[in-house]
Amino acid sequence: IDDRADILGEIISRTTQESLKNEVGKTFEVYIDGESDEHEYLLSARKTSWAPDIDGEIYINDNEIFDENSQEKLKFGQVYTVRVSELVGDKLLATVIK
Questions:
Q1: Which of 42, 71, 75, 90 qualifies as a FRET site for 9, CA 20 to 30 Å off?
Q2: How far does Cα 26 stand from its chain's mean position?
Q3: Are 22 and 28 in contact, with CB atoms under 8 Å apart?
Q4: Is 25 buried (19+), middle (13-18) or exposed (0-12) by CB count in 10 A?
Q5: Mean pLDDT across the chain
Q6: pLDDT digit string (tens) for 9-34?
Q7: Is the Cβ–Cβ distance between 31 and 46 less than 8 Å?
Q8: % helix / strand / coil in the chain, to the nearest 5?
Q9: Are strands 43-47 and 79-88 parallel, antiparallel or unpaired?
Q10: pLDDT of 24-80, one tens digit each?
Q11: What is the pairing mode between strands 91-96 and 58-60?
Q12: How many C-beta atoms surround the C-beta of residue 85 within 10 A?
């Protein structure tokens, strides 16, 4: 049973990594959940289709959004459009674009 569980764990880990790699460069909407436990300069977010505390976490590497007219602080619980820049370990790193 333990060997089977290990094999299944490896399969899940591998498919999760492949799925996350496919997200790099893509644009989608996320909820900003709050500050990340990883680092004080990262925000924790999740895709709008992901379940809280189950499907993973996306790190947002800024806490403000800029446009031609203003500079606005990101608000927790709000939905923003992000572009994923890279995969670091098992976490996606993204930047808010609007």
A1: 42
A2: 12
A3: no
A4: exposed
A5: 84
A6: 999 889 988 988 988 999 999 999 88
A7: yes
A8: 20, 40, 40
A9: unpaired
A10: 999 999 999 888 888 777 888 998 888 777 778 899 987 655 555 556 778 888 899
A11: parallel
A12: 14
